Amino acid sequence: MKKNRDLKEQIFPLKRHLGNRYRVYYNGPRSFPNPAIHPMPSPNPQNVQHLQRKVEEFEKRLKDEKSDNEDFEKKMTDKKRKF
């Protein structure tokens, strides 16, 4: 048992040291690079238009779903009133 404890005491500081070192690599590069070093490229207008169309589609779908939910709620309240 004493041998195991001695080994653990020897290995633990090494693990802690390696863990700190790997933590740096695990986080990876920053998601927002320094604009002075790496200027952001201008957005592609085709991509912007495509994304705008997608947003409009999702907004339309959300509006339709909300209206469907309102219709359903009205039907349910009408059924409750009948009984």
Kindly state the number of beta strands.
Answer: 0
What separation lies between the terminal Cα atoms? 76 Å
Give helix and strand order, one letter per element, not per position.
HH
The overall pLDDT average reads 72
Q: Helix fraction? A: over 70%
What's the total helix number?
2
Strand content: under 5%
Q: Return Rg in Å.
A: 30 Å
The low-confidence runs, each spanning 5 or more residues with pLDDT under 50, are 20-27
- Helix/sheet category: mainly alpha
Compute the number of structural domains: 1
Shape descriptor: flat
Largest sheet: none
Describe the structure in your own words:
The protein is mostly helical and 83 residues long. It has one domain. Helices cover 77% and strands 0% of the residues. The protein is flat, with a radius of gyration of 30 Å. About 10% of the residues have low confidence.
Key terms:
mainly alpha, flat, single chain, 0% strand, 83 residues
